[in-house]
Amino acid sequence: MRDIVKRFNEDTPAEITILHGCDVDIEEGEFVSVIGASGSGKSTLMNIIGLLDRPSSGTYHLDGIDVLSVPDDELARLRSRKIGFVFQNFNLIGRIDALRNVEMPMMYAGVPPRERAQRARELLELVGMGERVSHLPNELSGGQKQRVAIARSLANSPDLLLADEPTGALDSATGRLVMDLFHELHRDHGMTILLITHNPELAEETGRIITMKDGLIA
């Protein structure tokens, strides 16, 4: 990413600039954290990296693709193939079990039912949830929900895993288990991971720390 600027309410009296020209490089196979105070621009940057929003100006190449020149419908397909998301509050669908939650991204990607069910089972086994495939989210603990969410984020074999405060809703012991799982994915499976966190201790565990302050890379 080069010179990424993000403004909201452009060309109105309420215009505000959140990102003031950020340069970011993340290499394949890195485990990188982004830290900064509330309001520093971390979430805005993550939304742009995750193709959930477009910058006001700047350039962004993801795996060699100039994503800012891609139409919105193709951008959604690119996001589905290239990026996995893990959120603080899990974002699981409450009325379906763990297996079907993990299947959902593959269903939207057009993966046949038998294939996606098999892969969902394999991913739940990978994150230690193989015995909970038929459980609804309200039958799972916070840590178990986050493990299902991590399995779901891996469904379409993304190139980049974006984790936005993934331990924020968990107690310290459960958060430790989730961080250990990220380390395992990075170490044993070569995942490229970008961790957004307020916690400097968690950031210290990653290979590189990007610090944001007032919409800039500090």
Features:
single chain, 218 residues, alpha/beta, Rossmann fold, six-stranded mixed β-sheet, 7 helices, 23% strand, ABC_transporter-like_ATP-bd, AAA+_ATPase, transport, ABC_transporter-like_CS, ATP-binding
Tally of contiguous helical segments: 7
Low-confidence stretches: none
Assign the CATH architecture.
Answer: 3-Layer(aba) Sandwich
From the spread of the alpha carbons, the general shape counts as: globular
CATH topology: Rossmann fold
Content-based structural category: alpha/beta
CATH class: Alpha Beta
Could you report the average pLDDT, rounded to the nearest whole number? 93
Protein name: ABC transporter ATP-binding protein
GO molecular function, one term: ATP binding
Pfam families: ABC_tran (PF00005)
Keywords: ATP-binding, Nucleotide-binding, Transport
How would you describe this structure to a colleague?
The chain is of the alpha/beta class and 218 residues long. It has a single domain, classed as Rossmann fold, CATH 3.40.50. It is 36% helix and 23% strand. The protein has seven helices and eleven strands. The strands form three sheets. A six-stranded mixed sheet has the order 7-8-9-3-10-11. Helix 3 crosses helix 4. The protein is globular, with a radius of gyration of 18 Å. The mean pLDDT is 93. Keywords: ATP-binding, Nucleotide-binding, Transport. It holds the Pfam family ABC_tran. Residues 1-218 form the ABC transporter domain. It comes from Corynebacterium nasicanis.
